[in-house]
Amino acid sequence: MRHGLVLFAPFTGSSLVRGWNPKFYFLRADPAAELPALLRYALAHLRGRRLGFMYMEGEYFGGIEYELVERAMSGMGYELSDVFSVESSVTGGAKKEAFDAAWEAFADTQLQAVIVFGSPTNDAVKLVRRMLAGKRTAVAYLLASSVLQYLVLRVWRAAVAGGVEFVPGQVITTGTNSLAKDTQCEAIRRFQELMREYLEKSGQKCYTDKDSFFYS
């Protein structure tokens, strides 16, 4: 601010650091903006009326989103079926007995879908692993924000490798960028055009297929 610099932030994991500043620009959506997308998908597309929410207390991420989802659900005449929340290991962590008791109560509610918000910590790994491997929770859809995308997919792959049944579409995450194959977006069409030209004419030898960049 003192020297008149303009700052750009590629992404943020928490909505707490967001705020209006004429010298500070965020290039991606507010993490809290991902919540309505997940909520809408769970209720309108998956039609899951037994919806749960998971977050860790004491982190910069999750508590605000929990309050927002409660408010949104109440406005539609719904309420969350259950919430899993214990103290984060970042602030000391819950005792194993308390964690296990909270999890047992949460799993017993037989949820159809669960939204998880939080930081990509060991707590999140533990929650996602239990969610996907537990007999009572493995049938539920798991919805996560983009900041947890890599963690969730990594844990899911490990769970499947360990014998958990692979269910296509069971894990859903938000994203803040258009896919490279989404031709509804003019910017992506332009990107495809320029990338194909580069792959064909630049002399690069890594990719023989000019369309390989948008396979998923």
TrEMBL record:
InterPro entries xref list: GRESAG4.1/3_peripasmic_1, Peripla_BP_I
UniProt lineage: Eukaryota, Discoba, Euglenozoa, Kinetoplastea, Metakinetoplastina
Sequence ranges assigned to domain Receptor-type adenylate cyclase GRESAG 4.1/3 periplasmic binding protein-like in this UniProt record: 33-175
Domain of life (superkingdom): Eukaryota
UniProtKB keywords: Receptor
Organism expressing this protein natively: Trypanosoma cruzi
Protein name per Swiss-Prot or TrEMBL: Putative receptor-type adenylate cyclase
Pfam families, per database record: Peripla_BP_A-cyclase_1 (PF25495)
